[in-house]
Every structure is written in C-alpha cells, then in structure tokens.
Specification:
The protein is α+β, with helices and mostly antiparallel strands and 170 residues long. The protein folds into two domains: 6-82, Beta-grasp domain (Ubiquitin-like (UB roll)), CATH 3.10.20.30; 86-163, DNA polymerase, domain 1, CATH 1.10.150. The protein has five helices and five strands; from the N terminus they run E-E-H-E-E-E-H-H-H-H. Strands 2-1-5-3-4 form a five-stranded mixed beta sheet, covered by helices on one side. It binds FE2/S2 (inorganic) cluster (2 copies). One FE2/S2 (inorganic) cluster (FES) binds at residues 43-46, 48-53, 63, 65.
C-alpha cells in the first residue's frame, strides 16, 4: 500500500476528460484495470519488460505499469478500448486476425498498440523496422512469425487504404 497522499489529476482518456484521485505513485495500469474497469491493457510482468500493458501516451507507446499518477496530469491516454472506433486499428486487427497472429491473445492488445504507433510513424516500415519496433513486446506462445506476417499484412492494408480511401479501386 502506498504511503503517499492522494492527488487529483485530469487526463484525457480515450478522448474524454477523466478526473482521477489516488496516491501519487499509483500505477496507470492499476487505475485503468482496478479503478476504471478498463481491462483491455493487460498486466504481465509489471516491471516494464513484456509490453502487455502498452497504452498510447500522447500518441506514443508507453508501459502503463511504469507510469505513475503524478506523471499524468493533462496527458492524453489511449487504451485498447479507445481503438474500437479507430479505422487504422480496425484494419490492423483484421490483418492480425487473418494471419492468426496470436494464440492465447494475452499479449495482443499491447502488440496492437505498439504496431499502430509504429505504422502511423512509418507506413512503409520494413520487416526489420517492425521487428525493432516490437522489441518491447513479448509473446510467450507464437514464436513471432505469425505476428510479423500479420504486421506486414497490416502495413500493406493501411498503405492501400491511404492510397485509395474510397476503396473503389479494390
Ligand atoms: S506489465 Fe507492463 S511491461 Fe509488462
Ligand atoms: S499469443 Fe499468448 S502470449 Fe502472445
């Protein structure tokens, strides 16, 4: 249990302002899962090594298990739940599913977060770029080949969607 006093912070969470009141060192992953019932981000190692807890912080992937409440005032946080209406994320999830990228799926939300940020930053990412961009995400089931195939498929689908946003040439 934290010995620190509660602090109040306001974050933008999945597009909506949210007021949080908790000890200054409460971890974002615990705020999300235990206080707000947002369980899309998973808790794995809890020490920043597995990427299961990845969220987007101001648009960049970050480990929610390493973020404390005192760091979050006025920051923009997107969790896996916040991607449900995101067109790029829909394409990405479909591509991963088409390649049967995951087995148990526990790591999947973190991979989706990391991949979405990567492919937005670099739509022409090579397989080497994708592997480098996913170094912070661990999967215990798949051996990664199917994830990389899904990521490649997603990169191509996102590129096609941007080149032809109407889909009329398909
Ligand atoms: S639970 Fe956060 S990196 Fe593993
Ligand atoms: S599919 Fe099981 S941990 Fe990745």
């Amino acid at each position: 249990m934290s010995g620190l006093d509660d602090i109040a912070v306001t974050i933008r969470l999945n597009g909506e302002p949210r007021n949080l009141l908790a000890p200054a060192d409460r971890r974002l992953i615990d705020c999300l899962r235990d206080d707000l019932a947002l369980v899309g981000a998973k808790k794995g190692c809890a020490v920043g090594r597995c990427g299961a807890c990845t969220v987007l912080l101001d648009g960049e992937p970050a480990n929610a298990c390493l973020l404390m409440l005192w760091q979050l005032d006025a920051r923009d946080v997107v969790t896996p739940e916040g991607l449900d209406a995101d067109e790029d994320a829909v394409i990405l999830r479909e591509a991963l599913a088409a390649e049967n990228a995951f087995q148990c799926g526990y790591c999947a939300p973190g991979f989706v977060m990391a991949l979405l940020a990567l492919l937005r930053r670099d739509p022409l990412a090579s397989d080497a770029d994708i592997r480098a961009g996913l170094e912070g995400n661990i999967c215990r089931c798949t051996g990664y080949h199917s994830i990389i195939r899904g990521a490649r498929r997603a990169a191509e689908a996102l590129h096609a969607a941007r080149a032809d946003p109407t889909g009329e040439s398909a």
